[in-house]
Design a protein that fits this description.
Helix 1 packs parallel to helix 3 and helix 4 packs antiparallel against helix 5. The chain has 228 residues and is of the alpha+beta class. The chain starts with 5 loop residues before the first strand and ends with a helix. The protein is built from 10 helices and 4 strands; from the N terminus they run E-H-E-H-E-E-H-H-H-H-H-H-H-H. The longest helix is centred in the middle third of the chain and has 27 residues. It has 2 domains: 82 residues, Glutaredoxin (3-Layer(aba) Sandwich), CATH 3.40.30; 129 residues, Glutathione S-transferase Yfyf (Class Pi), Chain A, domain 2, CATH 1.20.1050.10. The chain binds glutathione.
């Protein structure tokens, strides 16, 4: 398969898009990026590409086009890219290691992402504090994985890192939006290691992007609170 035919329909502000963009960068797969801002932050005059409307079942980013085929939903996309392209894999071949990666990917998707999204989409302080605490608890659990290994699942970076960097890109912004939980030492060291990876350069936020993220969600809160 010619990897030059990969197109990512995504957006930097979407942590699910970041998962895929990180994996593409880390695996040195060439790709085109078509920016589709999620509805909550979409400029009014933005014209959604018809190709995206036609092929994305839930109108969610990320969606990937490989050759002539399309797939939406980040975790299936990461698996699909592993099936299609074998270079610089982020999924171990062996059964048990592969199982651990998949298990941790699912765990992060649920126990890290739910509270993370809860912090920035939160509109009342009690809910934001609850999400922040849940996120802190998730980080404590993750720190136990990192006591045994430098990486989240096994001895190499895997698609579990792709999930995690969706959180790492926005930590500073989350702090401004109400994240108070502390980052365990093992996780802080893991952040530093992830920042050395090739994929990080594809997803890292500038200070302007952090400010834009914070500003857009502060505005979102204002609008929601004015309505209620
Ligand atoms: N389960 C999906 C979730 C993707 C998702 O929630 N994407 C959001 C943006 S972060 C989206 O596009 N929502 C529709 C919209 O806001 O227009 C995945 O893992 O890719």
């Amino acid at each position: 398969m010619d990897s030059s035919q990969v197109t990512l329909f995504g957006h930097w502000i979407c942590p699910y898009s970041i998962r895929v963009q990180f994996a593409l960068g880390q695996r040195k797969i060439a790709y085109d990026l078509v920016e589709v801002p999620p509805r909550a932050v979409r400029p009014r005059d933005f014209v959604v590409p018809s190709e995206f409307i036609e092929h994305s079942p839930k109108l969610e980013v990320p969606m990937v086009k490989c050759g002539t085929e399309y797939l939406a939903d980040s975790i299936p996309i990461l698996e699909w890219l592993e099936e299609l392209i074998s270079t610089d894999s982020l999924l171990p071949e062996q059964g048990e290691d592969r199982h651990l990666v998949r298990q941790r990917v699912q765990w992060l998707d649920k126990h890290l992402y739910w509270p993370m999204v809860g912090v920035y989409y939160g509109t009342d302080n009690v809910k934001i504090a609850e999400a922040s605490n849940a996120l802190g608890n998730a980080l404590v659990e993750i720190s136990t994985w990192l006591q045994d290994s430098q990486w989240l699942a096994g001895t190499q970076p895997t698609i579990a890192e792709a999930i995690m960097v969706g959180f790492y890109t926005r930590i500073d912004g989350l702090r401004e939006l109400g994240l108070t939980a502390s980052i365990p030492t093992e996780v802080a060291a893991h952040i530093d290691r992830c920042k050395q990876l090739e994929g990080w350069g594809h997803v890292e936020w500038s200070a302007e992007q952090t400010n834009e993220f914070v500003g857009r969600f502060q505005k979102y809160r204002e609008i929601q609170n004015a309505r209620s």
